[in-house]
Design brief:
The protein has one domain: Nuclear Transport Factor 2, Chain: A, CATH 3.10.450. The chain contains six helices and seven strands.
Length: 161
């Protein structure tokens, strides 16, 4: 029998595979934090806002291209990890992306309190952005630009809701 936090991660990733942001939201603590190369989020409202935005975008613009796999879930009372690989159409360019992500988690009160996704930004940017990603994906300039645009997109999405 697996640990309850491993089951929580399975619930989270099964919901993500089904683009079910509401179930994903139920997995996060009120004080949750999320970090990856595109986002730095604090509090459940921001974290859930990001997942809701991503799920909504895929449903509206590219569900036909959506594929999602996860594996290597492990967790104990305080920490967890998972591997996941989404394939999707990047909405800003229409280009197909296959991202390879390793996630680390912290838990509190049976919920996710910290979530860190790690992936090769240059690899992602080459797929998502084409030539600009090939030429600048290694640079802090492009990373900052992507992070800034992601924050602006999230703010605009959350303002509409």
């Amino acid at each position: 029998m697996s640990h309850a936090n491993a089951e929580l991660l399975r619930k989270f990733y099964n919901a993500f595979a089904n683009l079910d942001a509401e179930t994903m939201a139920s997995c996060y603590h009120e004080n949750a934090e999320f970090e990856d190369p595109a986002f730095s989020l604090h509090g459940k409202k921001e974290v859930v806002g990001m997942w809701t935005m991503l799920c909504t975008t895929v449903k509206e613009k590219g569900r036909d291209a959506w594929q999602f796999e996860f594996s290597d879930i492990a967790a104990d009372d305080s920490d967890g990890k998972a591997h996941w690989e989404p394939r999707y159409r990047f909405s800003a360019t229409g280009r197909m992306v296959h991202n390879i992500v390793d996630a680390q988690f912290g838990f509190r009160d049976g919920l996710i309190i910290s979530h860190r996704d790690h992936f090769d930004f240059w690899r992602w940017s080459k797929q998502a952005l084409g030539t600009p990603g090939v030429l600048l994906g290694w640079s802090s300039f492009l990373k900052k630009k992507v992070r800034s645009q992601a924050a602006a997109n999230l703010a605009a999405f959350m303002a509409k809701r």
